[in-house]
Write a sequence for this structure.
C-alpha cells in the first residue's frame, strides 16, 4: 500500500475554479481499481494551498491513475491556476518526491 500527498499552490483568484475542476477527477479516481482513498482538502496555514490525500493498493494502480484520460485532462485544465506543486509518494520503505 502507498500514500500520496500532492500539494498544489494556486493563484489567489483560482480557488473556486480549481475546486470545481477537481470534483470530477475525485469522483472518477474513487472508482478506479486500487484506489482506497482520494480526498482534497485545504491547508489550514496557507489559503492558497490545496492538498490531495490519496491511498492506493499499489504503485502500479497509481501509475494507471496518473495516465488515465480524466487525470491527464485535469492536469491540462488546471495549468493556468497553479503556481507550484509537489507530489510525495510514500512507500513502506521510502518516499518518492516528484
Amino acid at each position: 500500500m502507498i500514500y500520496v500527498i500532492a500539494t498544489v499552490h494556486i493563484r489567489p483568484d483560482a480557488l473556486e475554479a480549481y475546486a470545481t475542476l477537481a470534483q470530477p477527477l475525485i469522483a472518477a479516481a474513487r472508482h478506479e481499481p486500487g484506489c482506497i482513498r482520494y480526498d482534497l482538502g485545504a491547508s489550514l496555514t496557507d489559503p492558497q494551498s490545496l492538498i490531495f490525500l490519496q491511498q492506493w493498493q499499489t504503485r502500479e494502480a497509481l501509475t494507471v491513475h496518473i495516465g488515465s484520460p480524466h487525470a491527464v485532462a485535469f492536469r491540462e485544465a488546471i495549468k493556468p491556476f497553479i503556481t507550484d506543486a509537489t507530489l510525495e509518494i510514500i512507500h513502506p520503505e521510502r518516499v518518492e518526491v516528484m
